[in-house]
Amino acid sequence: MIELIATVTILAVLVGMVVPLARFTVKREKERELRRDLWDMRDAIDRYQQFLQSKPNMTRTKLGSEGYPPDLETLVKGVDVQGQKTRFLRRIPIDPMTGKAEWTLHSMQDDRDSDSWDGQYVFDVRSKSQGIALDGTKYKDW
User: Do β-strands 84-86 and 104-106 pair in parallel, antiparallel, or remain unpaired?
Assistant: First the structure.
């Protein structure tokens, strides 16, 4: 009986150590995924702008947009130039922290710390999560 109690106690201690480690690992993986998704979307925004600037006679851009996309869906749908469609994103990624494909969008005129978007065009994208990262920063500030 004493051996059984000792075994159960040892197992309880091991499980108590594994659970926090597993949570840490899951959170770290979600953070990696968030960083990758943000990088992919920001890269797509930049490629969209560079594409439009490289073809000024073939594409129309809204005055004051500096060639940035009007929304993230435009990056998925792409741009049609002389019958050829150029896409910049396969899909709008799901934010691993919120579980939704919703992101905070910013234009160049928006205040950096603001959560509002003026609706003009997309210059930057951030997570809507209010959570704190393992390094102590807020996900919405990444």
Answer: unpaired
Contact call for residues 142 and 127 (beta carbons, < 8 A): yes
Structural element, H or E, at residue 104: strand 104-106
Q: What is the pLDDT of residues 21-76, one digit of tens each?
A: 888 999 999 999 999 999 999 999 999 999 988 876 665 656 555 788 989 999 99
pTM metric for this prediction: 0.79
Beta carbons of 104 and 140 less than 8 angstroms apart: yes
The two structure tokens encoding residue 5: 């109690």
| Listed residue (137, 119, 118) closest to 127, CA to CA | 137
Sorted by where each begins, the domain ranges of the chain are 2-141
